[in-house]
Amino acid sequence: MYKCIIVDDEELARNLIKNHLKQLNDFEIVAICESAIDAINVLLEHKVDLLFLDIEMPVLKGTDFFKNLVQKPHVIFTTAYRDFALDGFELNAIDYLLKPITFSRFLKSIEKFKVTVGRKSNSEEDEKVKYKETKKDHIFISVERKKIKLNFDEIIYVKSVKDYVHIHLHDTKYLVKYSLCSFLENLDERFYQIHRSYVVNTSKITAYTKNYIEIDDKEISIGESYRATLLEYLSNH
């Protein structure tokens, strides 16, 4: 299991990398940090194999932060600016990823990392991307002092409402206190965040365009920052 941390001052960028990593079964996210300063303490407390590091951040740039590390993990730099790529390669980075990061481009970086650390298997099966096996098929939620079991297959989509989420099933819905990102972490790989306010069960999608999906007789817009990853996933499943 490869241990990694994500360091980026943009929430959308952090969530995108996190969602990409959730599709792989051999990576563990040790921490998600909003700044290089936050990452320092994590690196002091944990052995990290791979660092996803944004280059342009306030207070301390990612490249300056990495230069000053005594014990350097492998690093993949992320940036919204193509001109910063040279800075990353001068620091012997595994790769640099230009935002917005598509899943296919992300996988190329992961393959480079595995080759570098010498753990890539020669077998045909191990060369394929391995998706997480579903460890569970349900979640318990708290509703009116009761714990209610929801099978993942029952959930159509989840909508964020301030500090709560609406969990939509075919014939009912539940309002529970969760952030959308926290709730997504409890689900399996069929669930994707497609908008800052929506997570959907991709197995329930009946039609889609580049701008929206149709699910349970409802159209839900696809957020621009989620579009490339979602459309790539849907085209391959």
> From the coordinates shown, what is the CATH architecture of the largest domain?
3-Layer(aba) Sandwich
Number of strands: 15
Largest sheet: 5 strands, parallel
Radius of gyration, whole Å: 19 Å
Give the ordered list of helices and strands.
Answer: EHEHEHEHEHHEEEEEHEEEEEH
Structure classification: alpha/beta
**CATH classification class of the largest domain:** Alpha Beta
- Helix amount, in percent? 25-40%
| Assembly classification | single chain
User: Count the helices. How many?
Assistant: 8
Count of structural domains: 2
CATH superfamily label of the largest domain? Response regulator
Taking strands numbered 1, 2, ... along the chain, how are they ordered across the largest sheet? 2-1-3-4-5
Low-confidence stretches: 120-125
Broad shape: globular
Mean pLDDT: 87
First-residue to last-residue Cα separation: 26 Å
Organism: Flagellimonas maritima
Keywords: Phosphoprotein
Pfam family, one: LytTR
Protein name: Sensory transduction protein LytR
Describe the structure.
Residues 139-205 form the HTH LytTR-type domain. InterPro entries: CheY-like_superfamily (IPR011006), LytR-like (IPR046947), LytTR_DNA-bd_dom (IPR007492), Sig_transdc_resp-reg_receiver (IPR001789). Keywords: Phosphoprotein. The chain has 237 residues and is of the alpha/beta class. The chain has two domains: 2-127, 3-Layer(aba) Sandwich (Rossmann fold), CATH 3.40.50.2300; 138-235, LytTr DNA-binding domain (OB fold (Dihydrolipoamide Acetyltransferase, E2P), Beta Barrel), CATH 2.40.50. 30% of the residues lie in helices and 32% in strands. The strands form four sheets. It has a five-stranded parallel sheet with strand order 2-1-3-4-5. The chain is globular and about 55 Å long.
